Amino acid sequence: GQNIDQPTEMTATEGAIVQINCTYQTSGFNGLFWYQQHAGEAPTFLSYNVLDGLEEKGRFSSFLSRSKGYSYLLLKELQMKDSASYLCAVRPTSGTYKYIFGTGTRLKVLA
Amino acid sequence: EAQVTQNPRYLITVTGKKLTVTCSQNMNHEYMSWYRQDPGLGLRQIYYSMNVEVTDKGDVPEGYKVSRKEKRNFPLILESPSPNQTSLYFCASSILAGGEDTQYFGPGTRLTVL
């Protein structure tokens, strides 16, 4: 089967750095996405990885290791507004556009 | 303003009464998709479409139908809703480049089937 695992909840302090891990087991791999979802709202795109390595976008970075089926999202200089769920998603197969989402990691940022 | 719209935003209905949730995008995107989101299960893909008249099943298509007669619209049809279809539904759209195809999500439709 196809599976994506993420921690259910994490807590961190304002100004700190937090790393949210995602492991996946899928029938193929054609890209990994991170989305942010505030409570009661729609998901919004954060980052995309298809090759091994680190992608940096301001305070947010995402890392991918295809051989290990592993990714992480790194959030620096945490702000209260970063309190949200973070969804890891994999597009398993080239040529089709199915997406498999993890159950999401709920991050609480404390003052 | 570039956006994905869904209607209705909230719906309470009864078992067996056919309903349609509309989805429309104004970004000329080829790709559109429907998801349901349930506590503890995350987002699960119901159906997707790669262009007009081209649709395919996601992971949880049972009990749902879709159509793509126009590029901008992708309605989700529940012919005979059941209580296990009570959920939060999201429509999404994106370009189709095979790379960083960011999905833009609609605001969601909260459906309750009694």
Structural commentary:
The complex is a heterodimer of chains A (111) and B (114). With 111 residues, chain A is mainly β. Chain A contains no helices and eleven strands. In chain A, strands 2, 4, 5, 9, 10 and 11 form a six-stranded mixed beta sheet that branches. The model of chain A has no long low-confidence stretch (mean pLDDT 94). Chain B is mainly beta and 114 residues long. Helix content of chain B is 0%, strand content 50%. Chain B has strands at residues 4-7, 10-13, 19-25, 31-38, 42-51, 54-57, 65-66, 76-78, 87-94, 104-105, 109-113. In chain B, strands 2, 4, 5, 6, 9, 10 and 11 form a seven-stranded mixed beta sheet that branches. Chain B has a four-stranded antiparallel beta sheet with strand order 1-3-8-7, with no helix packed on it. In chain B, a hairpin with a 3-residue loop joins β4 (31-38) and β5 (42-51).
Kindly summarize this structure in a few lines.
The complex is a heterodimer of chains A (111) and B (114). Chain A is built from no helices and eleven strands.
Biggest protein-protein interface?
A-B, 23 and 27 residues
* Total count of strands of chain A: 11
Helix content of chain B: under 10%
Proportion in β-strands of chain B: over 45%
- Helicity of chain A, as a percent range: under 10%
- Helix-strand string of chain A: EEEEEEEEEEE
Sheet bearing the most strands of chain B, described?
A: 7 strands, mixed
Could you list the spans of chain B in which at least 5 consecutive residues all have pLDDT below 50?
A: none
The helix tally of chain A amounts to 0
**Low-pLDDT sequence parts of chain A:** none
Give the CA-CA distance, first to last residue of chain B. Answer: 36 Å
Instruction: Give the overall form of chain A.
Output: globular
Radius of gyration of chain A: 14 Å
| H/I helix tally of chain B | 0
Kindly report the oligomeric state of this protein: heterodimer
